[in-house]
Amino acid sequence: MKNIALAVGLLAGGLVLGVAGTRSFFKEAPAPGLSSAPVAPVAVPPGLPRLEESDEYVRGKAAALSAEPSYASWLKSENLLSRVALATSLIARDEIPRDALSFLAPKGKFAVVRKGGKIYADPRDAARYDGVAAVVSSLDANAVAVFLRGVEPLLDLAGDRGERGGFRAAFSLAVIRLGQTPVAPAEPELRETKKGIVYAYADESLEKLGPARKQLLRMGPKNQAAVQAKLEEILKAL
User: Fold this and answer.
1) CA distance 231 to 212
2) What is the pTM of this model?
3) Dihedral sign, Cα of residue 184, residue 185, residue 189, residue 195
4) Tell me, what's the pLDDT at 29?
5) Average pLDDT of span 178-199
6) What is the DSSP letter of 43?
7) Nearest-5° angle of CA 182, CA 186, CA 189?
8) DSSP-derived secondary structure for 108-152
9) How many Cα atoms sit within 13 Å of 164 on the Cβ side?
């Protein structure tokens, strides 16, 4: 539904996916935290560090995936692979990985404009996501695929062990789900709900979409297309 972004594993996996780990103007249920359940001891594949000690290893392998300045700051986060795995799993279920990708949250607040008695999303709001889209677009899909294959055993260990197929299956579902997101107008019409200043899409075909796909819509048509195209590239490369 990111990732996505930490070596694209983050982004793609997460933001993807990514796309998202931010506060939405839509009402939604809180996402589970990164430490909602203890991690049971697991066997570490040969040549890889323990999951809880993998951040420096990941930073070293992922550093060259993008030359965008903001990308380096993303890699300073902790529990990188756990964030990727959690974000990917949530997006695959069409939920927003707000906690997992909180470092991607754009600055500023969501704004609307009023025209002729109607409410529209301010087109300038999408510009807050330009930086995220730029990083995702800069990623080399083949290099990202190599990186993800290399850490896939750890991503499997970090993910929801109740899911079938491990990280790759969740990633595939997340990319497919986000890829099915329709393109909204640059200034989609909104409506206020009955419970105060919480907005919903006036177009029911958009409003009925799940939280992750609606979050992708908030990036604006240009950024949405860039993220969807790059995620498709990465999925094919895998």
Assistant:
1) 15
2) 0.76
3) positive
4) 35
5) 85
6) P
7) 85
8) S---EEEETTEEEE-GGGGGGGHHHHHHHHHS-HHHHHHHHHHHH
9) 0
